[in-house]
Amino acid sequence: MAVRATASRFPIDSDALEASGLPWGLTVTPFAAKDETGIGPAYGSNGHLLPRCENCYAYFNTYCELDQWAWTCSLCGTLNGLSSDAIARYSYPHDSIPETSSSFVDLELPLDGSEEEMTQARPVYVAAIDLSSSEEFLELTKSALLAALEALSPGSLFGLATFSHKIGLYDVQGPIPVVKNVFIPPDAESKLPLELEDAMPLLQFLAPVETCKDRIAAALETLRPITSWERSSGAAQGIDGVLMGGRGFGTAMEALFNYLGSEFGNTFALARVFAFMSGPPDYGRGQLDTSRYGEQYASKRVDADRALLPEQTPFYKDLATIAVQSGVCVDVFAVTNEYTDLASLKFLSIESGGSLFLYSSTDDSTLPQDMFRMLNRPYAFNCVLRLRTSTEFKPLHSYGHFFPDPQYENLQHIICCDSYATYAYDFEFANNTGFSRHSREPPVVQIAFQYTVVVPTEGLQNSELPSSSRGKHVLQRRLRIRTMQFETAQNINEIYDSVDHEVVLSLLVHKVILVSLEDGVREGRALLHDWLVILTAQYNDAYNLVQYKNGNKSMSSQIDITFSQCPQLEPLPRLVFALLRNPLLRFHEEGVHPDYRIYLQCLFSVLEPSSLHCGIYPSLTSYSTPDKQAYPRHSLSRAALLTSDSPIFFLDAYTTLIVFYTSTADPSLPFPPPQDCLLRKNINMVKQGRSITPKLMFIRGGKDDATAFENYLIEEQDVDGSGFASAKGFVSFLDDISQSVAEYMK
Ligand SMILES: [Zn+2]
């Protein structure tokens, strides 16, 4: 569990917080194997016996004072008695007790009744493939699924389904694959005429991967796109004979979840559905009206960025609830450049704990690699995340792909979560007092994360398991707790000096996404602009105060826009500028596809702070040869490139990696860089540590089209995208901020 705060020294009270102009909060990556400094937890068992505070329910931790019979809670100060068992356990302090040796523990919990009955919880995966598509789409989907089959552990069950104007269920357990079809009524109201269970019993549909791999592959080979002839002769005929669409996605998903739900808690504890789509649902339940996209283009008066961001129907949000109740997590893979209205569809994946992937074409899609990667990494499910703080402050907002508990405040449920998934909180003071200036009690945050993992019995230490359990899986419930102590800042400079600008960026990104969803992109941009103005003003205010005390008044008239006195704040103006240039916040008129914007919103709101930094302000390094790095960091400016005499540049924009050879590069330098060189080694390292597969491009300046690379050189671009030729970019942005700061300070 990695936790990073906006500043390691907390503001002393709400006045100090306001005066700082900074957000106050933290990010948490609960299922990360290590903490933010690379240290793992102390492992143990009997998490249910860990003492808890009778006042605030915090767990006992290393910051609590422990006496012979009692302990004092480090969060609320309550004195709690110890049970006789705990007294015996803690009577001689010992390094082998996790909770007394580390503030980061991971403890096994006993399974509750229903989980205990699931002695053979098997991982279940279902692929749902859009046949209302093209040959190219199906080829890509097939190769993705063949990659997936290689990544699935023995003992997993796999089901293959298709959807169009009908649902196809494959039985691959017999000698030849058999498909059963259920036709979907075309209108948005009718349900299926037949339950899927009646078309094919679920356990016939879910096939063991290890014995059926070849037949699953054979069944995949038989998939063909639905032809218009099939569609018109099927149920897809409109009343007046006009051919209607044929992608009955909503009905198919609803039917699949109900189908799988019958074995939830019996065969499986979590089933994952991979939904492959080549366009918007336009048939049956949950069909989407994609004409709203065209209408936006036609009209000039409406804020398109605002109109296209909200969902047009609650159908997919409600469907996500059905998925969750059926123990299903949905990953949506959209391979299309058609307007698909991900704004409506996204809820299906984010609320069920899945991911949303968007590929604009089948040609350069990294879908098979993403699939393999996703299945090859561990995930936790059925998770509960709870953040507690000492009494002086409390969480204000929470951000990320979880949903709140209907009953308890500050308790979040996460259906499925991998080691990358990151969440954020911001804080407010509980009252006007704040942290006492003279108190010995520092601010404390405790994050508890309860989760379940499926463990193959091979992975268990216990060598006495009977051989019959080979290839089987068992459930493990665990409790991970991280307790952190922070310091308080005695003055504003102490806050500024302890700022983590990447965490500040994370909170800003969450806030602007929320504002742009509610009030449009324009409002999101305005919020960001105003925030930077206020921060700069507050910083200058604090700084000038120091100057005045020193009797140096001449400096006070000059606004320091670059935060030259505080290296921790210095990156922020550049990051805000880059965020304003990011497709996340660029205007519709600049050609940002609404689905791409939604995809970025979903991606950026789960990234940990350093990855997000890379996505917003890509890192640019240079090489003098493929084997020798020249400079580790360049600003994203054409001028910087021109003045540097390096022939090779490597740009990492999180989703895209570009190797760029300048037009003046020595022609004897091998292109593309050879497999065994340092540059390739670095590229591979970057690829391995990433939650998605970045797209890798090689570009030769002067020979290839370099637009893809040059678009990332943002510092000469106009912040509003209105005047590319002006080449004022970042410099004029700073001038503008500086003027606004001067006005604000008056
Ligand atoms: Zn307490």
UniProtKB/TrEMBL annotation:
Belongs to the SEC23/SEC24 family. SEC24 subfamily. Keywords: Protein transport, Transport. InterPro entries: Sec23/24_helical_dom (IPR006900), Sec23/24_helical_dom_sf (IPR036175), Sec23/24_trunk_dom (IPR006896), SEC23_SEC24_subfamily (IPR050550), vWFA_dom_sf (IPR036465), Znf_Sec23_Sec24 (IPR006895), Znf_Sec23_Sec24_sf (IPR036174). The keyword Protein transport applies. It comes from Brassica napus. Residues 500-612 form the Sec23/Sec24 helical domain. The keyword Transport applies. This is Sec23/sec24 transport family protein. Gene3D superfamilies: Sec23/Sec24 helical domain, von Willebrand factor, type A domain, Zn-finger domain of Sec23/24. Residues 51-83 form the Zinc finger Sec23/Sec24-type domain. Residues 122-374 form the Sec23/Sec24 trunk domain.
